[in-house]
Amino acid sequence: MSESAYAKDVLVSAEWVESRLDDFQSDDPEYRLVEVDVDTEAYDDSHAPGAIGLDWERDLQDQTTRDLLKKADFEALLGKHGITEDSTVVLYGDNANWFAAYTYWQFKYYGHEDVKLLDGGREYWIENDYPTTDEVPEFSAVEYEASGPRESIRAYREDVENAIERGLPLVDVRSPEEFSGEVLAPPGLNETAQRGGHIPGAQNISWAAVTNDDGTFKDADELRELYADRGIDGDETTVAYCRIGERSSVAWFALHELLGYDDAVNYDGSWTEWGNLVGAPIEKGGAE
Prior knowledge:
The protein is an alpha/beta fold. The chain has 12 helices and 11 strands.
């Protein structure tokens, strides 16, 4: 199945990126390649030529409020790296694009039109011997003017409460152990909530269910069937969430961008917010 079978032209292959490496390394802002990871340790070791390295927590989060970057900060970050609002930006990263998908969602939140994901992410690029370097590119700073925010793709606490009340689909993309309340975070990661469990009525459909073994996305028919089997067909607002909003961005990308379910939203507060709220309803136990 070709990439064109998806609802939107938002995925590019490693071959596509490799054929444009000269463009990504040029000071001309028409094309920019950005690697986004939980930190820049892997990027510092090796990355695709011309790729800008961003640390998800340090560069893309407000360090005081645990929130998205403010609009002005987002504009300053992109402009500093030679990205304009007209640039074709290709994002990729570790963990099969967890943090790259979140950044894609943040780009869309602030109205950037031409942004894409490198299918398969960093691991696919490295494991298939595509070119790498340890050189950090420097691009001339430019002005960036965001047109957002576009709140239609973001869910807040009150939207989740409304989804519970109305019986709208909630997709919890965490592991079964997190969903059941057995653990609060994936192994080796900080626990960010006081209580375990899941939002009442949520379906546990792992973020990994939308990707193949090599980290590339499944084709549109497979994705549509995956969600339809759980009663999700895009006819209602569908809320995706995880622990800190990055894994749920992968599911949001599959639902909103690849399947074209325009009412899919990402609850970026996710379990870090919900699991710490006083009095918020929580269910425990596995999926039925």
